[in-house]
Specification:
By secondary structure, the chain is α+β, with helices and mostly antiparallel strands. 18% of the residues lie in helices and 32% in strands. The chain contains two helices and eight strands, in the order αβαβββββββ. Strands 1, 2, 5, 6, 7 and 8 form a six-stranded antiparallel sheet that branches. Strands 3-4 form a two-stranded antiparallel sheet.
């Protein structure tokens, strides 16, 4: 191999390593990544484009094939519970409420409390705590 080809190959491998490190682990409680407890990490909705829908769709499961259950506006804070690929389960109080969402588990499918919950795409979530 010539020197140029080796340099290009090395650069490509470095980019792949960075991209792999940026991917959330598959099916991992977010608390295991950072804060330690179920749904302790806090995320904020970011990157919604003005002039478009102006909301982030919350779905029943981790993928576009699941029904929509809610919509979140920009800057809305949510508890981050479990990551599955590019999707993360979230929990948040109803609009206007100051209640605290206290999950017993990162598996929101078992949650039966007063808070809203569902799945959103990681592209529009920024971790702000935990």
């Amino acid at each position: 191999m010539n020197r140029t080809m080796v340099v290009c190959l090395g650069g490509a491998l470095a980019l792949l390593a960075v991209a792999a490190a940026a991917e959330p682990p598959a099916s991992t409680p977010v608390g295991d990544i950072g804060a330690g407890g179920p749904c302790e990490s806090i995320g904020e909705v970011v990157g919604l484009k003005a002039g478009r829908d102006g909301f982030l769709t919350v779905r029943e499961g981790p993928g576009t094939g699941y029904p929509e259950v809610d919509r979140l506006s920009s800057e809305r804070r949510v508890r981050l519970c479990r990551s599955e690929g590019r999707w993360v389960s979230v929990m948040y109080p109803p609009p206007g409420s100051r209640m605290l969402c206290e999950p017993e588990s990162a598996d929101i499918r078992r949650y039966r409390g007063p808070c809203n919950f569902g799945w959103v795409h990681w592209n529009w979530i920024r971790i702000v705590a935990g």
